[in-house]
């Protein structure tokens, strides 16, 4: 049985269903009954006065339906909830998620009904994680189905499982070596506790993006990513993801693989950045205190 995701899209779809059914019933049934009973009232412009609930449904259905189509099949807004994608994305960034990049999916169920393309290595994807299926996470896609991933102290070797000479991850069928290259011992100001990190870069499918790792002198329970070694084989129908903040991200290294049906879309564009109050202000919530469009741009 497919998973039902009780997110905003679910409630938006439910509202569209209710208002749509009421609108249709009134148009083809209830309105005729009112006319036959002589219970129709008109305003000064000669328009029918509908009962309150029917009036609300008829008024809001077109708006709700339009928003549902836009959000479910085209672009969905998403707020970056943590620092796991530092330094490229920050807690407070608001982005647009391309919902049709990998295929058209049913709202609430996230079941693909029209295939468009396969997720590619290096894409930044938004998805429902296996351990918290009602949440939405954002990470960088590292391994596609069939890949053998070998991590050796900052160097990732990807051995694709190719069929008919094609690699669904967007690269060649030959093993790929992706090395984290040191850039600077300083990071951007928005990275929390940035003095503990160093900036690196890596290139996947010709797309270069920044990373951060804990400085080797910083002690961390479980060790640092640059000193780690591990091997994973990505099962069919699943994907392996990691955050760009390699020592500050809970990802596939911790909770496993992302199922294909859990993928929401491809992170496409940053459009606004908000800063929030340090302390809760209203009903235990942190409120926005600053707004900036300076970070607007495509996501790499």
TrEMBL record:
Listed GO MF terms: serine-type endopeptidase activity; signal peptidase activity
GO cellular component: membrane
Start and end residues of each Peptidase S26 domain: 55-271
Keyword Thylakoid: no
Family statement drawn from the similarity comment of this UniProt entry: Belongs to the peptidase S26 family.
EC number: 3.4.21.89
SUPFAM superfamilies xref list: LexA/Signal peptidase
The protein's name in its UniProt record: Signal peptidase I
Keywords: Hydrolase, Membrane, Protease, Transmembrane, Transmembrane helix
GO biological process: signal peptide processing
Source superkingdom: Bacteria
Transmembrane segments: 6-25, 52-74
Reaction catalysed by this enzyme: Cleavage of hydrophobic, N-terminal signal or leader sequences from secreted and periplasmic proteins
Chain's gene name: lepB
Enzyme class: hydrolase
Upper classification of the organism: Bacteria, Pseudomonadati, Pseudomonadota, Gammaproteobacteria, Kangiellales
InterPro entries documented for this protein: LexA/Signal_pep-like_sf, Pept_S26A_signal_pept_1, Pept_S26A_signal_pept_1_CS, Peptidase_S26
Active site: 84, 139
Subcellular location: Membrane
Matching Pfam families: Peptidase_S26
Keyword match Transmembrane: yes
Membrane topology label: Multi-pass membrane protein
Classification via Gene3D superfamilies: Umud Fragment, subunit A
